[in-house]
Amino acid sequence: xxxxxxxxxxxxxxxxxxxxxxxxxxxxxxxxxxxxxxxxxxxxxxxxxxxxxxxxxxxxxxxxxxxxxxxxxxxxxxxxxxxxxxxxxxxxxxxxxxxxxxxxxxxxxxxxxxxxxxxxxxxxxxxxxxxxxxxxxxxxxxxxxxxxxxxxxxxxxxxxxxxxxxxxxxxxxxxxxxxxxxxxxxxxxxxxxxxxxxxxxxxxxxxxxxxxxxxxxxxxxxxxxxxxxxxxxxxxxxxxxxxxxxxxxxxxxxxxxxxxxxxxxxxxxxxxxxxxxxxxxxxxxxxxxxxxxxxxxxxxxxxxxxxxxxxxxxxxxxxxxxxxxxxxxxxxxxxxxxxxxxxxxxxxxxxxxxxxxxxxxxxxxxxxxxxxxxxxxxxxxxxxxxxxxxxxxxxxxxxxxxxxxxxxxxxxxxxxx
Length: 417
What we know:
This protein is of the alpha/beta class. The chain is built from 15 helices and 14 strands.
């Protein structure tokens, strides 16, 4: 069969830092959502991620084809990583001083293990999946990190266009943390095309001198079909919910939330805070005990029943210092949960303050506490914001519509429009 124009099938190779059963973050979760929806829209989507000893080679995640290239060098790296963890236990820092510490971006230089991991993955791709790479139309990386570097190197080697999604507030700038970072930025700037999820990321691209015709605005998305709003009968008392990995400090602002919660409990003694996500629970439990709020805070760890937890929560709080575009915030709003978030990139693109949620300044304990108390004391206002928040997601963040926008970008890069 002969194809022409936009009827011709698109074959996309997506490079992601990790996939289940490994731990995944927001960018990887979005990549999986997008990949599954693209398959539904007849886009051939192939996920590629570093392999591990216990899971490597080719396989499937639902309907998605997945490759995990692996070699003896990968095995040696795993052994070195295990030995390093045994000899050096990572210290958990909970509190951060926003006046003296940089908390809204990553500043530390990229470590040699990350560089080695990146290079091993690149050569594994060359050695084991080069034939499949030759067959794809576009290479798509989902973070402006080492995966973006690998994507550009593969794109240049095989003559493929590369699309990179910036999944943080200042991802392109953070490439300067790599060795020869400025030259690396120039190489990526001149070769790749980019996805900006938010207005702030668009402005960052412009400040970095990336030409306007080389980046596209596409938000994150969520599957909205067959999703029903929770009923008031499901809500269990005054339970406030946070969803996010504890190890992503200072980004997630958990110290700000816990300090604010102490103020909330002083005014509303019967309220409860539920925190969901991986992390060092014992350290945090000791921290809330020292704050005197141990009986009003619960750490649940990683959970698979997030929708059930949303249905029972009277409020969702996202106190982040930096975000890309939060999956948890999208999910909470889709479930009709009233939301409070910090006034930063990503959150600003979803919430209109006072209409479909509340925005507070980042790292402002008093402002966060006041916003929580306000919505807890005014259930009618809270309910109205929850309903409007759900409508916002239904209108603007359906993953099916997001996938259509990506198809348009792919077609444009392939000159099929």
